[in-house]
Design brief:
Blueprint (H helix, E strand, L loop, with lengths): L2 E6 L6 H5 L5 E4 L5 H9 L6 E6 L6 E14 L23 E16 H6 L7 H4 L5 E4 L1 H11 L2
Parallel strand pairs: 1-3
Antiparallel strand pairs: 1-6, 2-5, 3-4, 4-5
The structure holds a DNA duplex (12 and 12 nucleotides).
Amino acid sequence: MNYWLFKSEPDEYSLRDLAAEPGRTGRWDGIRNYQARNFLRDRVQEGDGVLFYHSACRLPAVVGTAEVVRPAYPDPAQFDPESPYFDPKSTAGEPRWFCVDIRWQDEFARPVPLAEIKADPELQEMVLVKQGRLSVQPVTPGQWRHLLELGRG
DNA sequence: GCCAACGTTGGC
DNA sequence: GCCAACGTTGGC
């Protein structure tokens, strides 16, 4: 059982978009960064906890949590020429990109903004603080607990 | 919209 | 395999 932080641009796919999916379950796809891909493919497991983070928006923040309900499988979008995530170099036999399915779990009573995370002495070791751009990143149990506490408002 | 940080590409 | 050029991410 591990904890993760997943980033999404809310204009593309927000926590509420996930909540509106059938079964509150959606595909986490479109990851096209090798470091993030490796975490998804090799480390993310069913039952893992996910901090849902909104990026590239008015208030970058952790807004809630989700649970991994299906571990890595090839991202179908890489084979679809119509998709912006199409990758002509990827083959069915040797897929390059992976996705997982996640289920909505909770929306925080209060979003926890990036600025607050950066200012929190307990959260200085978060990958979010140290390496801003990674879209799938590990979170420690202590960081997870602390974020949930902050999100209770 | 700017720009810093960082990842990827491709010539050599 | 180096590295310059270029593209992307994402905070501000």
